[in-house]
Amino acid sequence: MDGHWQYNPAFYGEIEDLFQAHNPALIVLMLEGGECARSGFHWPAEPFDFCLPGESLRPVQGLGGIIPYDLMRENARSKHYLLTSEFLAKIALSRQAPWVSISPPPVVGDDAFLIRMLLRQPLIRDEVRASGVPPAEWRRKMWVLLTSLMREMYESHDAPFLLPPAGTIDKDGFLAPEFYHDALHGNRHYGALVLRQIDEVLAQVTERETV
Amino acid sequence: MTHPYEGIPPHQLWLRSIAGVVPDEVDPVVMGKFKITPQDKVATAGLCFARNIARHLKAAGFNYYVSEPANPIISPGLAEKFGYGIFTARYGNIYTPRQLLQTLRRAYGEFHPVEDVWQLVDGRIVDPFRPQIQPDGFISMDEFNADRRAHFAAIRRAVEQLDVLVFTLGLTETWYSRLDGAVFPVCPGVAGGQFDDTRHGFLNFSVTDIITDLEKSILIIREKNPTSRFILTVSPVPLVATAIDRSVLVSTTYSKSVLRVAAEEIARYDRGIAYFPSYEIITGSYTRGAYFADDLQSVTEAGVSHVMKLFLRHYADGANQVVEDHSPAHETAREARMPEAAAVMCDEKALDVETVANE
After folding, report:
1. B10: how many CB neighbours lie within 10 A of its CB?
2. pLDDT in tens, B159-182
3. Would the CA dihedral through A77, A82, A84, A86 be positive or negative?
4. Whether the predicted pLDDT of A211 surpasses 70
5. Dihedral sign (CA B259, B261, B262, B263)
6. Which of B36, B47, B187, B213 could share a disulfide with B93, CB 3.0–4.6 Å?
7. Mean of the pLDDT values across residues B29-53?
């Protein structure tokens, strides 16, 4: 609409109705989570590497020159989160309850497992069959970059950002194998830990209200 | 013939080629020294004014050569903000031939300045030789080193593959390291680093210095790329500030005069080196200052268009020869954007702290 992507305006009314009908004690936001992992599944037209703050650059085979982190970040911010941020600003007007956002699960580091999962997905399987997936280290860095932007976006709307539960990330920064489910999601054990995180936040909210 | 002035062509006569001609039609180029085909890779280096040349070359269908482009995932506006595509490689402004020479020598591993890195208080890293290429600096030494390796490789590619280098001479004043003579595009302390007069000195190059540095630079390029040709221009943009205790106007005149003479000397006897009079086109008295914006420093779009019209007329061989519209309406819109455009890459602007703060 008007040359810009935007959510269907009717959706805002539906959200408002939901808020009024259920009067939630806490709103949990999980928008754009898939994008953080999915961005790492596709080889870019010109493969590139980049650095993350606080980490040394580990050379990865098959990647080209680097894109400075600040540039990556600004570019990703303008491409990924403007629409969602706009959406949050609008629904913030009708919310009564506090809200919290949750991080998407860390990326799967096991290439073979990931490829097996992606080959089941019609939209990407041909690409994966033809080119495989980018290196795990690069996927991890894309996830770190995009989740940091997601966190920044949520926090700018007063929605605290819950990191992946303790113990779900292995020593190399990937989803620990015992929490594997598919290409994008953690399994029910992962889900249980996230629910526990949300419970803790809810308890704090309830306690504040009681006081 | 009774005397040498008898029968000379109109372009040699002031009244007939300058005062008696509509300003838009004044043509001090007269004849290009060589032609550039649409296939020729045209590289640029120099300072802010050169970026206008790049923009028009692209619009006119020339093969404007960028050896260090941004990755295609980056949006064009952001790429420019980070210094991609403004010049052939991401070297930012190259103000002096000494800086050009040292840039080339560094790219080929022949010069390793002692003061090679500036660290900001937040730990970020600034490249002393392109201090504003990365708006907030590099996040780590790893990033800095990886980027610089790629940058040097891009410079080498440019040197070895360019057909024509358009180099815009900008300044004679510079600051250098007393340790090894490395020159900085901006005085240490302005956009990074710390000024220390035991380590940093000031130089105002002479004609001989400029000629020597230009000749050495051209020699390096020709050694790698024997058929390369050069077009030298002098930026008409006045100095933002002078480090000498005298009027900035006097320093500007010195600087431009030295550069102009040096360009003349270098180009005079070499068929592969041309001088292009953009300085004269913009600053000539026939314009009555009309090609300068309100700050009397930035060149208006009409001025740039005049320069490029003549550039294309005399140097283009089969290229599109389209010069951007500079009708009044278009001009107004363009000029409204000019301060922003100029602010992007002119490191030198940082010298005038008060003006920058008020912008």
Report:
1. 12
2. 999 999 999 999 999 999 999 999
3. positive
4. no
5. positive
6. B47
7. 89
**Least confident window among A187-196, B28-37, B321-330:** B321-330
CA–CA distance, B323 with B311 (Å, rounded to integer): 10
Of the candidates B78, B136, B150, which has its C-beta nearest A75's C-beta?
B78
pLDDT exceeds cutoff 60 at B343: no
Nearest Cα neighbor of B57 from B176, B168, B185 is: B168
The answer to whether the Cβ–Cβ distance between B140 and A66 falls below 8 Å is no
Contacts of B215 (CB under 8 A, 6+ apart): B266
Task: Report chain B residues whose CB lies below 8 A from the CB of A79.
Answer: 75
Contact: B72, A45; criterion CB under 8 Å = yes
Mutation pick from A58, A67, A82, A146 vs chain B, by most beta carbons of B within 10 Å, is A67
What's the gap in Å between the CA of A128 and the closest CA on chain B?
20
The answer to whether A51 contacts B139, with C-beta atoms less than 8 Å apart, is: yes
Q: Residue B333 pLDDT more than 80?
A: no
- Using the Cα atoms of residue B252, residue B26, residue B312 and residue B78 in order, give the sign of their dihedral: positive
Contacts of B265 (CB under 8 A, 6+ apart): B207, B211
User: Nearest-CA residue of chain A relative to B137?
Assistant: A70
Cα–Cα distance for residue pair B59/A98, rounded to 1 Å: 53
Q: What is the ipTM of this complex?
A: 0.87
Contact at CB, A68 and B138, closer than 8 angstroms: yes
**What sign does the dihedral B100-B60-B238-B129 (CA atoms) show?**
negative
Q: Which residue has the tokens 């180029």?
A: B29
Residues of B in contact with A50 (CB under 8 A): 143
Helices then strands, each counted (H, E), chain B: 11, 10
A–B CB contacts, 8 A cutoff, strictly below: 66
Of A57, A66, A75, the CB nearest to B74: A75
Interface of B with A in 133-152 (CB under 8 A): 134-136, 138-140, 142-143, 146-147, 150
Does residue B349 carry a pLDDT above 90?
A: no
Instruction: Give the SS3 label for residue B273.
Output: strand
Q: Is B226 exposed, middle or buried (0-12, 13-18, 19+ CB in 10 A)?
A: exposed
Closest CA to A187 of A176, A197, A173: A176
Cα B182 to its chain centre, rounded Å, is 19
Which of A58, A70, A142, A146 best probes binding to B when mutated, by most B CB atoms within 10 angstroms? A70
Q: How far is CA B325 from CA A124, B24, B302, in A?
A: 46, 13, 9
**CA nearest to A35, candidates A183, A186, A157, A146:** A146
Distances from the Cα of B236 to the Cα of B51, B61, B171, B323, angstroms? 13, 25, 10, 20
Cα separation, A84 vs A78, in Å, equals 11
Q: Report residue B33 as tokens.
A: 């020294």
Phi, psi of B277 (to 5 degrees): -85, 55
